[in-house]
Amino acid sequence: MDGRAIFELIVRADERLKYATEATAEARRAQARELLERALAEAEASGNEALVAQARTRLVDLESDIPGDDQPGRTAPHGSS
Fold first, then answer.
1. Which of 18, 33, 37, 80 has the fewest CB atoms inside 10 Å of its own CB, making it the most exposed?
2. What is the residue-wise DSSP string for the chain?
């Protein structure tokens, strides 16, 4: 798989999360995780370190941004309540 196709997997994962509703959030997170894991595997197989890093970062972000996860020291983005 070429770099452009791998990047598209990452974009698709982002879109799954961006357009999730409260009712679909859990399923969308699972879909995004699957897409990111596939992107990571493909990037590693192709030796594209930039996309490996990007996919890993998105996976870490996905795992650390669990709804209802009010960890001390974490702040909401500016303008959100």
1. 80
2. --HHHHHHHHHHHHHHHHT--TTTHHHHHHHHHHHHHHHHHHHHHHT-HHHHHHHHHHHHHHHH--TT---TT--PPTT--
